[in-house]
Design brief:
With 281 residues, this protein is mainly β. The protein has 2 helices and 17 strands.
Length: 281
């Protein structure tokens, strides 16, 4: 992937950078591997807005990603590298020996024509191959990690992310997550070798409001710009501070920096060290 920066011919162009899509080899997706993506506009089943500032945006089709990779010990050939509007990472179209095609999350350094394989036993250590954590060498860089064996990848799926296998002992493997958290995961869980593609996605600058509208994000108004009846931060003449000890949501609850994790969550026992480098007792 490359990033293109335009000359500042307009105020919007001055702060804008875009993806060159130089690594894409196929423009149109596989029709059988897509489905219509219905938009909700931030509303729940009762029609009430539960997520603010959503609506509009360009039409998208959802690509059906194979997170389980459950065709074991059958090599698959990478046929194309495609853009997915639903994620920052690239996706790869792979074709198995029996003719079935599937989409997978593309790792860095995997090219068209390469072969990947998923196995329940030890297999070759190369980007894109998938196997249980217990068969991976210590220090391996991995992504698409299962929490529950057989359920499919749930962890480390965003562009440029990767985790590291630290140890395998007893029933569990110790993994260092991208956030710095060190946690235990069943050694029977599968993971894919490598780093998720498109690590430069984090450097793209949106630049103007119109691009956010294309993404389905509507404008957000500051609370301090509102009236007191509309927001706890509102009121006053001109530009004023919020006038509170801590920021609040429009509904009066504390916001920004407040810990939202339950104090006695069931999975606490699997966290060896949290993101703030504190060991769990």
């Amino acid at each position: 992937m490359g990033i293109k920066v335009y000359k500042p011919t307009t105020p919007g162009r001055r702060k804008t950078s875009v993806d060159t899509f130089s690594d894409i080899t196929k423009k149109r997706p596989e029709r059988k591997l897509t489905k219509i993506k219905k938009r909700q506009g931030g509303r729940n089943a009762q029609g009430r807005i539960t997520v603010r500032h959503r609506g509009g945006g360009a039409k998208q089709f959802y690509r059906l990603i194979d997170y389980k990779r459950n065709k074991f010990d059958m090599p698959a050939t990478v046929k194309a590298i495609e853009y997915d509007p639903n994620r920052n990472a690239r996706i790869a179209l792979v074709e198995y020996q029996d003719g079935e095609k599937r989409y997978i999350i593309l790792p860095v350094d995997l090219k068209v024509g390469a072969q990947v394989i998923s196995s329940e036993n030890r297999t070759e250590i190369q980007p894109g191959n998938r196997m249980p954590l217990e068969h991976l060498p210590l220090g391996s860089i991995i992504y698409n990690i299962e929490i529950t064996p057989g359920k499919g990848a749930q962890l480390v799926r965003t562009a440029g992310s990767n985790a590291k296998l630290m140890a395998v002992e007893g029933k569990y493997a110790t993994i260092r997550m991208p956030s710095g958290e060190v946690r235990l995961i069943s050694k029977k869980s599968h993971a894919t070798i490598g780093q998720v593609s498109n690590p430069d996605a984090m450097h793209i600058r949106i630049g103007k409001a119109g691009r956010k509208r294309h993404m389905g994000i509507r404008p957000t108004v500051r609370g301090k710009a509102m009236n007191p009846v509309d927001h706890p931060h509102g009121g006053g003449e001109g530009s004023n501070p919020i006038g509170l000890k801590a920021p609040k949501t429009p509904w009066g609850k504390k916001a920004l920096g407040v810990l939202t994790r339950k104090k006695k969550k069931y999975s606490d026992k699997f966290i060896v060290r949290n993101r703030k480098k504190k060991r769990r007792k």
